[in-house]
Amino acid sequence: MDAQAKPHERLAAALSEPLAEVDALIRARMASEHAPRIPEVSDHLIGAGGKRIRPMLTIAAARMNGYMGPYDVHLAATVEFIHTATLLHDDVVDESGQRRGRPTANLLWDNKSSVLVGDYLFARSFQLMVETGSMRVLDILANAAATIAEGEVLQLTAMSDLATSEETYLKIVRGKTAALFSAATEVGGVIAGARLDLVQALHRYGDALGIAFQMVDDLLDWQRGDETGKGFGDDFRERKMTLPIIRAVASAKGEEYTFWVQTIGRGKQGEGDLDRAYELLETHGALESTRRTALDWSDTAKEALSVLPQSDLRQMLMDLADYVVARIR
Amino acid sequence: MDAQAKPHERLAAALSEPLAEVDALIRARMASEHAPRIPEVSDHLIGAGGKRIRPMLTIAAARMNGYMGPYDVHLAATVEFIHTATLLHDDVVDESGQRRGRPTANLLWDNKSSVLVGDYLFARSFQLMVETGSMRVLDILANAAATIAEGEVLQLTAMSDLATSEETYLKIVRGKTAALFSAATEVGGVIAGARLDLVQALHRYGDALGIAFQMVDDLLDWQRGDETGKGFGDDFRERKMTLPIIRAVASAKGEEYTFWVQTIGRGKQGEGDLDRAYELLETHGALESTRRTALDWSDTAKEALSVLPQSDLRQMLMDLADYVVARIR
C-alpha cells in the first residue's frame, strides 16, 4: 500500500477481507424473492461506490479490540443499511436531484419506492442486529435511530430559522452524521467485549469525527471550485442554518441582521446577495471560527482514541480524523 | 357492560386500565423536547381515536396467559407506534387525501414531516422493545417489520398487474395487516412466558384475523352506501388487485379479459366500466367466493384460539374474529 494513500483507502486495504464479507452480506440481505424492486432501488445506492466509512469504523473498532468475528461483519452491514435507508428517506424529503453524482432514487423511480425500500432496509438492519444476540448492541442502535430521526425532524423545523442556536445545530449534526458514526464505533467495541472506558472512548471518537465531518461540509459550501459536487453557496440558497451562518447571524446588527432576515428567513434572494453573504461571513470571521471548531473536534476524536492500545488500525483512525479536516487546513 | 356491545368495545372495557397506561406511555414517548413537530404530527394520528385493536391484541394475549405486567404495556405501545409509523409512510406514498375521516398528515404538514416523524416513531418503538429485555420479542418484531415493508413494496409493484396471483395477494395482505396483528398477539404470549404451542396458536390467530379483516375490506369496496368512508368501487378506480378482482380476472376469457386489461392494466376507465366490473364480479361469483374465503380465515382464527384455556378474554378474541366478518355475512 502506498504510504501516501488516504487513510480510508489504507483502512479499506487493511480490512479488505471483512469488507468483502460485508458486501456479500449486504447483497444477500437486500435480495427480496418477492419484490425485485427492492434490490433495484437499494443497489442503485449501495452499488454507487460510497466509501463504506461506517462499516470500516465498526470493523476497525472491533478488531483493534481483538475481536475475531463473525458479528462485526453483521454490524457493519447493519450500519450501512441504516445509512442507505436514511439516504433514501432523505431523497424523498429534500426533493434533491443528485446524490453521489447520480440521479437520486426518487427521480428514477418514485417517492413511494424510496420510502418503502428505505423501510425495508431498516427492517433488514434490525434483523441483522438481532442475530448478534447482543442486547447492548440493540440498545445502542435503537438510541442512534431515535437521535437520527429526531435530528432530521429538527433540521426540517430549524430550516431558515434565524434563531437556531449552536446547541440545536449540534443536535442536527449528530442526527445527520455523528449518531451513526458513534454507534458504528461503539458497537464494534461492544461486540469485541471491550472494557467500558474503551467503548466510551470509541463512542466519543465516532461522535467527534462525525461532527468535524459535518462542519467541514458546511465550510466546503463556501469554497469556490470545489470538486465534491456542491456548488458555491448551495446551503445559503437552500436557506440552511449552517454553523458559519449561525455565527455570522449572531454577530449581525442592524442592516446586516435585516439582510439575513430577508435572504434566509424570508428566502428573498436577489442578485449580489450570495456575494454579500460571503462577505459578511468573512467580515465576522465566521468561516475561520468554524474552521477552528472543526479542528477542535478532530483533536477531540484523536484524544478519545489515545486510551486505546497502539495499533495500525488505531493509527489509521487517527489519520482519518486528520484527513477529514485536511481540506480546510 | 352491555352484552350487545361490540367485541372490541368489551375488550376495551375489560382492559381499560392497561390501555390507559398504553396511552400514557405513548404520549410520554412521542414527546420530543427538541422537535415539537413530532408530537404535532403523530398526535394527529394517534389522537384520532383509532380502535387500538393492536394494543388490545397484545395485552389480551399476555393476560390470558397469566401475565401481570409491566411489559405488555410496552409492547402494546410498540405495536401502536409501528402501526402509526406505517400509516404516516403510507400517507406519503399513496398521495391519499383522507384517513379516518380527517385530512392526512401530509396534506396538513408535508411529505417530509410524514416520512421523518414515521421514522422517529419506528425508532421509539424499537427503544420500547429493547426495554423489555426479550431477544425473542425483538426477533419477532424485526421479522414483522421486514414482512410489512416487503409487502408494501410488493403492493406497489403488483398494482394494476393483472398477473397478480393469490399467493402474492396473501403476501401483500400480510404486509398490510396480518404481520402486525400476528406479531402483536405473539409477543403478548412470549412476554407472558407461554408454552411454545400456545405462542404459535396466538400467532396463527393474529395472522388469520388480519387476513380476514383485509378481505372484508376488499368486499366492502363493492358495498353500496357503506359508512366506512370508502366509496363504491374505489379500489377498482385505483386499479388495485383485490381478491375479488384477482378471481374475476382468473375466470375471464376473451372480451372480458380485454376489459380488465383496459381498465385495470392500462387504467383506461370510462363511463359504465365500474358497473360492468361489478357485473363481472357477480357473474363469476368472485364476491361470494371471497366472502367464503374470509369466513374460512375467521374460522381459522377461532380454531387457533381453541388450544388456549377458556377465559373471558379468549371469548372476546373469538367474538372479534366473528365480528370482523359479520358485516359481510
UniProtKB/TrEMBL annotation, chains A, B:
Belongs to the FPP/GGPP synthase family. Gene3D superfamilies: Farnesyl Diphosphate Synthase (1.10.600.10). Its cofactor is Mg(2+). Supplies octaprenyl diphosphate, the precursor for the side chain of the isoprenoid quinones ubiquinone and menaquinone. InterPro entries: Isoprenoid_synthase_dom_sf (IPR008949), Polyprenyl_synt (IPR000092), Polyprenyl_synt_CS (IPR033749). Its EC number is 2.5.1.90. One of its GO terms (molecular function) is metal ion binding. This is Octaprenyl diphosphate synthase. Keywords: Magnesium, Metal-binding, Transferase. One of its GO terms (biological process) is isoprenoid biosynthetic process. Pfam families: polyprenyl_synt. It comes from Palleronia pontilimi. It catalyses: 5 isopentenyl diphosphate + (2E,6E)-farnesyl diphosphate = all-trans-octaprenyl diphosphate + 5 diphosphate.
